Amino acid sequence: MIKFKNKLFSMINESDIGNKYTFKCKIEDIKQTSGPTIFILNDGTSLLKATGFISAGERAFPDINKKDFVETELLIKKRKTKLEGEIVTIKKLTKNETNTLIKKIKQKNKPFQTEFLIETEILNKLKPELLKAAEIIRSAIFENTPILIKHHADCDGYSGAIAIERAIIPLIRKNHNSQKSEFNFYTRSPSMAPFYEYSDVLRDLGNILDVKKKFDKKNPLIILIDLGNIKKNILAIKRLKMYDFKVIVIDHHDPGEKGNIEKIKKLADLYINPFCVGFDSSFVCGMICTELARLINENVKNIEFLPALAGTADKSDKDEFTKYLKISEYSKEFLEKFAICVDFETYYIKYQESRELIEDLFRRNKINHENLINKIYEQVKQKIQETQTAVEKYVEVQKIDDIKFIKIDCEKVSSYGEFPTPSKVVRISHDLFKGKRISIGILQDSIIFRVNEVEKFDVNELVNDLKKQKPYALIEGGGHKFAGTLKFIPVAKKEILK
Ligand SMILES: [Mn+2]
């Protein structure tokens, strides 16, 4: 048998079967099976599975532990369809050799210095944070850390999550040299509420801890996308931090009260929000995450249309949106259709990840996709037209000075659990009129606002004022200046409406 030197994990292929090579690498993971002991090795170019065997079920090389840096001689073998190594010899590296290897691994985790898709001040300002996020995410991928993306289940939240998903899945696949690994090391979990609900936190946490125990996994990296309510997110992150999970938060909603940003920054490993650098909510999560995806994986594909899609859904209207619209190669009309179909489908998908279905919905393939959207849109159009007839009949309009005050009882014009959602019902009522106007949609425990051309109006201020005036109504909520929700306890409904 010939002995070679200077091989790297990333270079191993079928022609190496039967050969022995020596590698310097880090032990990312160790698992005991009923047969051999499995070592997951990282040489800074890729991961490789290697086996050590003394006797069935007995731990091989017991003085070698997780996170050790070693030099090992491996015999390359094929098991089923995958290449792996059989450990011939293994010994710990010296301090100097270890430091060299740490540097090499760190180098691989460094993000790509790709140019942004569009030129804008906001991205220059966000750049340091985006690079940090890319490095944390790349480290997770290359060091066998599972990743969970928790995102708002609306078109913007999905767009942001899909952009990052399309960057990381190919890297996970390549790194593990396996198609199944993308299911073992990556999960996406939609959130119906625009914040990390406590019930969701416990469900996710429960799943993670069970899987961790069952498969002896590392602590995951959790990425929160488009979940706007900082206060509620803080509770969620605190719970995750009790298990010392890494958390990255990406958002574009107004962080509200002073001090909120500092609080969440202290708690999370990274908090990215255009508001932190003096910008507003028009730079939506789909835009931030698409740019981040390109730093994570320079070969990421099929994401260029996501910023414009997300911007269309979230009514983004600044220069940045215009630039992304051009890049998307879609018309605004088609994106409107696309966005509402995403809202429609994902409303019924609810908490399910449905990775394959979502892949189709977000244009796995361009030609089939236009067909798919057109077909779904037929259904959506019908639902909306029906609702519109009801809204036209039951909407109430009052004029206060030169402002139209539009009122709709959301719970009474559409059936519970059916599309369109209450916030879409308010949008439909709002779009029936033009000019200066405030629309409110009334629910048992909340009021939804949509406002146009009423400069002094601000949903967040209204929420804060009422909170101070009526602490007993347990008021919460907010959102954007001209669109948001005021929540309260049902018993206070009459008083709040007044
Ligand atoms: Mn959003």
Low-confidence stretches: none
| Spatial gap, N to C terminus | 87 Å
Strand content is 15-25%
Mean pLDDT across all residues, rounded?
93
Described by the principal axes of the CA atoms, the overall outline is elongated
Q: In which range does the helix fraction lie?
A: 40-55%
Characterize the largest beta sheet: strand count, sense, and whether it forms a barrel. Answer: 6 strands, mixed
Radius of gyration: 26 Å
Strand order of the largest sheet: 12-13-14-15-17-16
> Count the strands?
17
Q: Total number of helical segments?
A: 17
Q: Which small molecules are bound?
A: manganese (II) ion
Category from helices, strands and their pairing: alpha/beta
Task: Provide keyphrases for this structure.
498 residues; 6-stranded mixed β-sheet
Plain-language structure description:
The chain is α/β, with parallel strands linked by helices and 498 residues long. The strands form three sheets. The chain has a six-stranded mixed β-sheet, with helices on both faces. Strands 2-3-4-6-5 form a five-stranded mixed beta barrel. The protein has a five-stranded parallel β-sheet with strand order 8-7-9-10-11, with helices on both faces. The termini are far apart. Helices cover 43% and strands 22% of the residues. It is elongated and about 85 Å long. The mean pLDDT is 93. It binds manganese (II) ion (MN). Manganese (II) ion binds next to loops.
